[in-house]
């Protein structure tokens, strides 16, 4: 399996289902939606997809009948306990037959669980083993997920329910619309790209094992640079493609950000079949009520923010300081521009600033960050790994969040930071450009270079020196609304358009 086909780092924690308030869909007027995902934050989360998969279906339930399909990983089954079986799904080529389970969360969200122990009941993450290596059979594991989505769309597995539309997410579910197309079934489908860099690329020799017709291995099909791409299949065969911010939807139609798929994506854009819809964040991101914080606070009382800053400094072994506190809460991967942060550290420290970092990712970056902490004891603190409580206190206690990402399809950290009065210092790209108001709720830079980044850092330090400006920007940032309901309404509009255009049901 190629490196681009997996999510390389773990950054997340389980989120209680009760976090999102849901309500019953509006009678029989709502459409039946099958939301297909490889992770959901309630039980198993690797990145932002897990958060989206937990929050968006719940927000959509106010308008539609939504059910979620997810593989039956060991971690999920331990949390759920016994999952009643509602049907049996046949195999295809090397894809094994399996059972389909159905269960409801405490707040009433229906989950379909793909019960296939030989594929999913393992130690490790959804994508890699305990040593961090891709599962050797990832093509089989996620082709089985795509086939199950197609089966359910055809009325198989659960005889009591079939969707009007299937909503697919990233490469692990990318073959679902392809299997439907090869069966001649017209069920509408939405393919959401959360990160185009991860494409699920496998060798041509896997076509037979996955039940893919030889005729589909072409430019107008699943072929990508001589290999098979799950994500390209999803983009090509889906009725409509969405991605997670308006700016990223434009960026991926260019060679710079298109990862080799820009031509196909430009075609979808010209056809009116590519839409950018910004992700949201859930209502728990409220500094007045968050139980993880050392002290609550709001935009009119900053004492609690100071208490959280002190807590963070203690936790990371930093010296007492009156200077600005910069935070990094991120997957530690090249995409996130950690090399620029490392290069900027000397300047930040010399200006009286301190930096705290948490996350997990590429071993080289983890080692470089730990070396940085050793080089600047008391001024730089690094914790490899992720703890939600620590991360939330970092957002609450920091003055600024560093996000010099090379690209950022949506990004959630900059939204969390603003809600907690931490001003992002970020590259003007993707969702960062769509969610940060330069000079009002944060600091953006266009030139992706150390000089460009440092220019934004200097601007943030200048703002810190002006208590009036800092307070005004914090209040503006904390007033920003990133509610999921707006995203859900935008998706509902796309659903309606796609179902009408396909002309079924």
TrEMBL record:
Reactions it catalyzes: [(1->4)-alpha-D-glucosyl](n) + ADP-alpha-D-glucose = [(1->4)-alpha-D-glucosyl](n+1) + ADP + H(+)
Pfam families (UniProt xref): Glyco_transf_5, Glycos_transf_1
Ranges for domain Starch synthase catalytic: 32-266
All copies of domain Glycosyl transferase family, residue ranges: 322-447
Residues binding ADP-alpha-D-glucose, per UniProt: 45
Signal peptide bounds: none
Pathway in which the depicted protein is active: Glycan biosynthesis; glycogen biosynthesis
Keywords, comma-separated and alphabetical: Glycogen biosynthesis, Glycosyltransferase, Transferase
Function description: Synthesizes alpha-1,4-glucan chains using ADP-glucose.
Family the UniProt entry places it in: Belongs to the glycosyltransferase 1 family. Bacterial/plant glycogen synthase subfamily.
UniProt-recorded name of the protein: Glycogen synthase
């Amino acid at each position: 399996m190629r490196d681009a086909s997996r999510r390389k780092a773990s950054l997340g924690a389980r989120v209680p289902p009760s976090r999102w308030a849901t309500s019953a869909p509006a009678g029989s007027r709502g459409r039946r939606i099958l939301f297909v995902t490889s992770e959901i934050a309630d039980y198993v989360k690797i990145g932002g997809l897990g958060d989206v998969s937990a929050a968006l279906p719940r927000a959509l339930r106010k308008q539609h009948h939504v059910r979620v399909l997810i593989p039956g990983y060991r971690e999920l089954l331990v949390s759920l306990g016994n999952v009643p079986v509602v049907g049996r799904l046949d195999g295809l080529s090397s894809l094994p037959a399996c059972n389909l389970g159905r269960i409801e969360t405490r707040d009433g969200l229906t989950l379909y669980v793909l019960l296939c122990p030989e594929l999913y009941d393992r130690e490790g993450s959804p994508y890699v083993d305990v040593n961090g290596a891709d599962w050797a059979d990832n093509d089989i594991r996620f082709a089985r997920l795509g086939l199950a989505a197609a089966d359910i769309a055809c009325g198989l597995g659960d005889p009591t329910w079939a969707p009007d539309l299937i909503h697919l997410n990233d490469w692990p579910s990318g073959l679902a619309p392809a299997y439907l197309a090869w069966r001649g079934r017209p069920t509408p489908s939405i393919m959401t790209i959360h990160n185009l860099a991860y494409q699920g690329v496998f060798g041509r020799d896997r076509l037979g094992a996955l039940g893919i017709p030889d005729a589909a291995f072409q430019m107008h099909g699943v072929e990508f640079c001589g290999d098979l791409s799950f994500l390209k299949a999803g983009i090509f065969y889906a009725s409509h493609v969405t991605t997670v911010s308006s700016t990223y939807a434009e960026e991926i139609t260019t060679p710079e950000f298109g990862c080799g798929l820009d031509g196909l994506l430009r075609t979808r854009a010209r056809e009116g079949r590519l839409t950018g819809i910004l992700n949201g964040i859930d209502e728990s991101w409220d500094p007045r009520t968050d139980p993880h914080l050392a002290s609550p606070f709001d935009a009119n009382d900053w004492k609690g923010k100071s208490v959280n800053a002190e807590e963070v400094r203690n936790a990371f072994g930093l010296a007492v300081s009156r200077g600005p506190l910069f935070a990094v809460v991120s997957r530690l991967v090249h995409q996130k521009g950690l090399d620029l942060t490392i290069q900027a550290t000397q300047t930040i420290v010399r200006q009286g600033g301190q930096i705290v970092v948490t996350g997990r990712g590429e071993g080289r970056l983890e080692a470089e960050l730990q070396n940085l902490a050793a080089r600047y004891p008391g001024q730089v603190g690094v914790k490899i790994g992720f703890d939600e409580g620590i991360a939330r206190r970092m957002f609450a206690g920091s003055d600024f969040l560093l996000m010099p990402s090379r690209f950022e399809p949506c990004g959630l950290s900059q939204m969390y930071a603003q809600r907690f009065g931490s001003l992002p210092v970020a590259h003007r790209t993707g969702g960062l450009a769509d969610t940060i108001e330069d000079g009002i709720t944060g600091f953006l830079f266009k030139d992706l270079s150390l000089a460009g980044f440092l220019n934004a850092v200097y601007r943030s330090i200048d703002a810190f020196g002006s208590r009036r400006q800092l307070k005004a920007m914090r209040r503006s940032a904390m007033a920003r609304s990133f509610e999921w309901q707006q995203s859900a309404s935008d998706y509902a509009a796309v659903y309606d358009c796609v179902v009408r255009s396909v002309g079924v049901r």
